[in-house]
């Protein structure tokens, strides 16, 4: 645990909702650090004087905690251990493993002096039944694997050092993994990280998706998964995926493609970004873009000779960082140009981001700046690249992307 980053933003968020009349739902990819987050939070509660017996922690990944137990058995087991007249903190980890878990959660929520925290690696956790049952009574905290900053912290690298070669470290970050446990495996070599990622990939695909949704044609499913992974940051539609696969001799109906992608988004493997028409100021219903939760998974999905070019990988990392910083994100489009990200911040302000690996020629300078210059409003506009020498123009702020990733204050 010692090289763990403290995940301060997430802990602060949990504390801001502590003892509030809301169920705290921590969601995110398997192994992205949800259980560790609850462990860290529990330690903080104990430090603040909450007694051990006021906290109950159930890990429902362990079969002994749920096999042959129904939701009500667990409910009464928890109830008998509650400390009277004091706040009780109940943690239910991977709660979706219990049939009718929503009744358990709802029952505990209705109990006096009980603060409930649940985690799940599936968006369906909050699908129909639970969301309906708990409407307006939960807050979702969506957790992502380590940011570039957290990754460097976990590797004990001093980010205050002005002479670090960020580019090399960044390539480590995207070629290995951003999953917390994967970073602990670094000393054992890349093969160990690869095996770890492969195991997670298999669990997500087999357990969380193909078994859960009864997918028989696993090959078709994996082909779609690999296709989307190879096209990070490209506008995709179920129709054009279906057509492309047809040319490869596989016939998969576009409705099936759409369903499979939904499952992948539901398991937090991909994040979907809708297009926003900057002229008409409205969200468009087609040609979404998809970003991958962890770049290391590209090694499994696309192979070691990853074809996704580094500009798109950088764009993916910037997307995840904007998400971490609490933005709502679209990709902006006008008739003849495109802006990578249109963001609505937590305070409701708008900001635009364009991402490019490097500005190497007058042509790229023109292209990257002009798509932002075409937007005729006064909201902040940023161009993020790996260049050391930045050149802002016409009100567009050009930043070095590594500095931006490491300095969260630079997001207005």
From TrEMBL:
Per the record, a Pfam family?
DUF4143
Lineage top rank: taxon: Bacteria
List, alphabetically, the InterPro entries matched: AAA_14, DUF4143, P-loop_NTPase
Residues covered by the DUF4143 domain: 206-357
Instruction: Using the record's annotation, list all stretches that form the AAA domain.
Output: 23-152
Name of protein: AAA+ ATPase domain-containing protein
């Amino acid at each position: 645990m010692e090289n763990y980053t403290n995940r301060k933003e997430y802990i602060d968020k949990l504390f801001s909702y502590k003892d509030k009349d809301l169920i705290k739902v921590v969601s995110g990819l398997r192994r992205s650090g949800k259980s560790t987050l609850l462990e860290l939070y529990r330690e903080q509660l104990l430090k603040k004087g909450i007694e051990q017996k006021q906290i109950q922690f159930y890990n429902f990944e362990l079969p002994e905690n749920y096999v042959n137990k129904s939701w009500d058995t667990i409910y009464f087991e928890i109830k008998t251990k509650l400390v009277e007249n004091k706040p009780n903190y109940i943690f239910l980890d991977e709660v979706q493993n219990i049939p009718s878990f929503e009744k358990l959660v709802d029952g505990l929520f209705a109990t006096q002096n009980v603060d409930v925290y649940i985690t799940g690696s599936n968006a369906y956790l909050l699908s129909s039944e639970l969301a309906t049952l708990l409407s307006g009574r939960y807050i979702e905290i969506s957790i992502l694997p380590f940011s570039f900053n957290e990754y460097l912290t976990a590797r004990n690298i001093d980010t205050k050092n002005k002479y670090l070669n960020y580019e090399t470290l960044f390539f480590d970050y995207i070629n290995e993994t951003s999953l917390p446990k994967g970073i602990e495996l670094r000393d054992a070599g890349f093969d160990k990280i690869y095996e770890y990622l492969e195991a997670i990939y298999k669990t997500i695909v087999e357990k969380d998706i193909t078994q859960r949704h009864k997918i028989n044609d696993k090959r078709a499913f994996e082909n779609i998964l690999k296709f989307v992974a190879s096209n990070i940051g490209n506008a995709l539609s179920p129709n054009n995926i279906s057509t492309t696969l047809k040319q490869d001799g596989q016939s998969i109906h576009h409705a099936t493609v759409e369903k499979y992608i939904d499952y992948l988004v539901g398991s937090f493997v991909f994040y979907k970004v809708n297009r926003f028409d900057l002229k008409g100021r409205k969200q468009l219903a087609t040609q979404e873009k998809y970003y991958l939760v962890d770049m290391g998974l590209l090694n499994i999905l696309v192979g070691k000779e990853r074809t996704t070019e580094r500009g798109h990988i950088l764009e993916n990392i910037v997307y995840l960082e904007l998400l971490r910083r609490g933005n709502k994100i679209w990709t902006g489009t006008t008739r003849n140009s495109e802006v990578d990200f249109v963001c609505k911040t937590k305070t409701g302000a708008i900001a635009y981001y364009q991402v490019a690996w490097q500005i190497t020629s007058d042509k790229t300078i023109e292209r990257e700046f002009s798509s932002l210059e075409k937007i005729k409003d006064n909201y902040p506009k940023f161009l993020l690249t790996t260049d050391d020498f930045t050149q802002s123009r016409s009100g567009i702020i050009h930043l070095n992307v590594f500095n931006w990733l490491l300095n969260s204050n630079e997001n207005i």
